[in-house]
């Protein structure tokens, strides 16, 4: 079973008894290694001063322990990683436990859980580590029996001698195996031989989350722990003019009231922290705090002003990310020309678990506990901010109640550390739902201008210009003349390769609103514009929407996905104007096609009848995890397309809680059918790619049924 504990490298090695009581191996990236990754025992690593990226340890009882370098926020790493290890190690999952590694990029490589990268970034190394440990155990058994290793094989945590059927459990072999030099280039299984990978095995972290044993950030307790909430300006760049804390200090449980600064990209957010001996006391005291804010010296934009600015920005020359051929010349000669403008909204992350962080700064060291997506980023940030050696900063991961990119940021952890340093005590900083919803950063809203020319029913010229805030332009010393690297994100690579004349560019819109990654990042907005426009082009070309896409996605992988989508939807047998829409996007190396069926109910209201998704993520681990992630992505996309958005008035976020920022309900979502492609492609992402195609597929379905083209999100289903 997985655990919620986070332990450091030395403690892990000590617990695993690497000096002979256990077999502990892991991988690392040598600076000059030609093969890119090396696998060694923990004893060798410790002797050489090498930091391993991940560990597998097998003790004398045969129990397998894994140190996982990525977070678990619902995406399934606590199931996928053990499933990969167990497959090649030849053990059952009930023999495997998993713990979080602390943050340290030099030791564990990139630990950011984002970009749907956990499996696709390390799958080969994890498989090789498991297979190498297995072969070391086989060799140890062969030595004990004095037989050739080729006569032995591993299964169910045992090594078996094929001619005699003699068996030795892994626990009996670990001491001898730990003395063996790990073999190089151990062959991995073929997919047809898998017995664990590819199976819809139940997630092992689910019981912990049901019975309350899973430790989330807010569950962390320390001796002498104090609790804090922070009153921050509702204007993103507001400063403290004055404050009166006399009533606050007189309230029971209150220990301190201090000014605090929180870094947000290249700006600083000022606030007043109320620290008490419990969260409730701090929250009640906050209500008695009187603050006067200085809101001068910066823009107080509202939503209308933001979008008017983006539309004006579209008239400016764009920063070109990618061009091919000569768009203007080809567009001028096109037999048919089409132009359209699309708008997508700002969105809050709205994780079910609001932000929180526990910090303890003591002299020259700092420890952090919390729901964290990027522990290595936070470690580096705090080392710089506190002027401490990086090894003196320990970042412990807990389970996350959702992340969606928000919990990869370093603002909330820095704030907690600075408060702890000031009061010289451990502190848990808790954000209320209102803090979480109004302070940002948000998914950036965007406006897209799309143009294309058609000849003989085929696209010959294609251009997209995006006006939106560039997330990269917010960092200190950012080059604001740089183009947005994500302008083509979400668009199938095969489509770009098949067009002779194209142009993708952006105009970075300036605004004081902080923006950042949101599930599938720019793909979530790009996908709506690109695949809605693709549908408009199919109509202009008088082509079936799926046939039109097949014509422009002329690679075998995309054709196979379209075939699957046609088969599962019964696309060829659908009636004319029957309310079907489709979209295909590519995101984090996975291709997803989604089809939506809509109709009007007896009351004349638009309803979603059916959602069909086909995921091509290449090599994969657990189909149930994939289905759950696609379903969650679609529900999140449905909310962003038809229900919620973040508005701004006088430079402040309007929506403060779920009474305004409403979520889709069970009765809003029909059963979602998810199908997974089987192929030999490298693994792609799973947690995010299911989101981008839903909104355009839904809007294309509405056009098919009603003839009304939706180019602005969100829209009200009851008003169509």
Descriptors:
about 725 residues; alpha+beta; Aldehyde Oxidoreductase, domain 4; 7-stranded mixed β-sheet; 5-stranded mixed β-sheet; 20 helices; globular
- Describe the global form: globular
Low-pLDDT runs of 5+ residues are 4-9, 12-20
Strand content: 25-35%
CATH topology label of the largest domain:
Aldehyde Oxidoreductase, domain 4
Q: Supply the CATH class of the largest domain.
A: Alpha Beta
Can you identify the CATH superfamily of the largest domain? Aldehyde oxidase/xanthine dehydrogenase, molybdopterin binding domain
What would the average pLDDT be, to the nearest integer?
93
**Structural class by sheet pairing and helices:** alpha+beta
End-to-end Cα distance, whole Å, is 49 Å
The number of domains: 3
Side by side, the strands of the main sheet go 11-12-9-19-16-17-18
Total strand segments: 28
Q: Please, could you describe this protein's structure?
A:
This is Xanthine dehydrogenase. It holds the Pfam family MoCoBD_2. GO terms for molecular function: oxidoreductase activity. With 720 residues, the chain is an alpha+beta fold. The chain folds into 3 domains: 203 residues, Aldehyde Oxidoreductase, domain 4 (2-Layer Sandwich), CATH 3.30.365; 157 residues, Aldehyde oxidase/xanthine dehydrogenase, molybdopterin binding domain (Aldehyde Oxidoreductase, domain 4), CATH 3.30.365; 311 residues, Aldehyde Oxidoreductase, domain 4 (2-Layer Sandwich), CATH 3.30.365. The protein has 20 helices and 28 strands. It has a 7-stranded mixed beta sheet. The relative contact order is 0.11. About 2% of the residues have low confidence.
């Amino acid at each position: 079973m997985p655990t919620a504990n986070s332990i450091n490298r030395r403690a892990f090695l000590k617990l695993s008894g690497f000096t002979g009581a256990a077999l502990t191996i892991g991988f690392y990236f040598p600076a000059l290694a030609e093969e890119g990754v090396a696998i060694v025992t923990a004893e060798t690593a410790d002797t050489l001063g090498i930091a391993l990226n991940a560990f597998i340890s097998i003790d004398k009882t045969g129990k397998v322990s894994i140190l996982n370098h990525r977070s678990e926020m619902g995406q399934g790493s606590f199931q996928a990683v053990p499933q990969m290890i167990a497959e090649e190690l030849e053990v059952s999952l009930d023999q495997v436990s998993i713990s979080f590694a602390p943050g340290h990029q030099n030791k564990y490589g990139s630990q950011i859980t984002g970009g749907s990268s956990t499996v696709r970034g390390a799958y080969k190394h994890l498989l090789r580590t498991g297979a190498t440990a297995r072969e070391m155990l086989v060799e140890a058994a062969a030595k004990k029996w004095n037989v050739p290793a080729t006569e032995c094989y591993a299964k169910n945590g045992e090594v078996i001698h094929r001619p005699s059927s003699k068996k030795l459990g892994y626990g009996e072999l670990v001491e001898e195996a730990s003395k063996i030099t790990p073999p190089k280039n151990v062959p991995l299984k073929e997919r047809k031989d898998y017995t664990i990978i590819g199976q819809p095995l139940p997630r092992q972290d689910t019981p912990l989350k049901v019975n309350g044993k899973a430790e989330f950030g807010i569950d962390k307790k320390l001796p002498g722990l104090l609790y804090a909430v922070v009153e921050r300006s509702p204007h993103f760049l507001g400063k403290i003019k004055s404050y009166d804390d006399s009533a606050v200090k007189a309230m029971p449980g209150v220990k301190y009231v201090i000014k605090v600064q929180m870094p947000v990209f290249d700006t600083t957010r000022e606030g007043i922290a109320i620290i008490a001996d419990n969260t409730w006391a701090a929250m009640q005291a906050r209500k008695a705090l009187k603050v006067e804010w200085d809101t001068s010296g910066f823009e107080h934009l509202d939503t209308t002003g933001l979008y008017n600015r983006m539309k004006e920005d579209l008239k400016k020359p764009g920063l070109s990310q990618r061009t091919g051929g000569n768009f203007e010349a080809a567009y001028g000669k096109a037999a048919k020309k089409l132009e359209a403008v699309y708008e997508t909204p700002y969105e809050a992350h709205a994780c079910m678990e609001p932000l929180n962080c526990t910090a303890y700064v003591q002299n020259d060291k700092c420890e952090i506990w919390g729901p964290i997506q990027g522990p290595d980023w936070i470690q580096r940030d705090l080392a710089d901010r506190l002027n401490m050696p990086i090894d003196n900063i320990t970042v412990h991961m807990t389970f996350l109640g959702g992340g969606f990119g928000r919990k990869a940021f370093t603002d909330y952890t820095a704030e907690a550390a600075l408060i702890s340093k000031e009061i010289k005590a451990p502190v848990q900083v808790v954000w209320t739902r209102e803090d979480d919803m109004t302070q940002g950063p948000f998914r950036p809203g965007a406006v897209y201008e799309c143009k294309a020319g058609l000849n003989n029913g085929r696209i010959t010229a294609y251009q997209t210009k995006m006006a939106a805030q560039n997330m990269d332009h917010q960092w200190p010393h950012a080059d604001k003349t740089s183009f947005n690297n994500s302008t083509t994100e979400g668009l199938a690579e095969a489509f770009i390769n098949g067009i002779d004349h194209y142009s993708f560019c952006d105009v970075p819109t300036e605004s004081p609103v902080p923006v950042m990654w949101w599930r599938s990042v720019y793909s979530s907005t790009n996908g709506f514009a690109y695949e809605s426009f693709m549908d408009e082009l199919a109509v202009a070309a008088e082509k079936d929407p799926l046939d039109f896409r097949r014509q422009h996605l002329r690679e075998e992988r995309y054709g196979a996905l379209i075939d699957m989508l046609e088969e599962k939807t019964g696309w060829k047998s659908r009636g004319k104007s029957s309310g079907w829409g489709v979209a295909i996007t590519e995101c984090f190396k996975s291709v997803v096609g989604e089809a939506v069926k809509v109709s009007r109910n007896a009351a004349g209201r638009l309803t979603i009848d059916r959602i069909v998704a086909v995921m091509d993520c290449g090599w994969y681990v657990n189909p149930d995890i994939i289905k759950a992630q696609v379903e969650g992505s679609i529900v999140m996309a449905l909310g962003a397309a038809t229900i919620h958005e973040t508005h701004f008035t006088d430079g402040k976020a309007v929506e403060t809680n779920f009474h305004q920022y409403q979520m889709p309900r069970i009765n809003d979502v029909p059963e979602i059918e998810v199908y997974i492609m089987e192929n030999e492609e490298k693994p792609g992402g799973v947690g995010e790619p299911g989101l981008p195609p839903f909104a355009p597929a839904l809007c294309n379905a509405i056009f098919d049924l009603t003839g009304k083209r939706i180019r602005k999100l969100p829209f009200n289903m009851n008003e169509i």
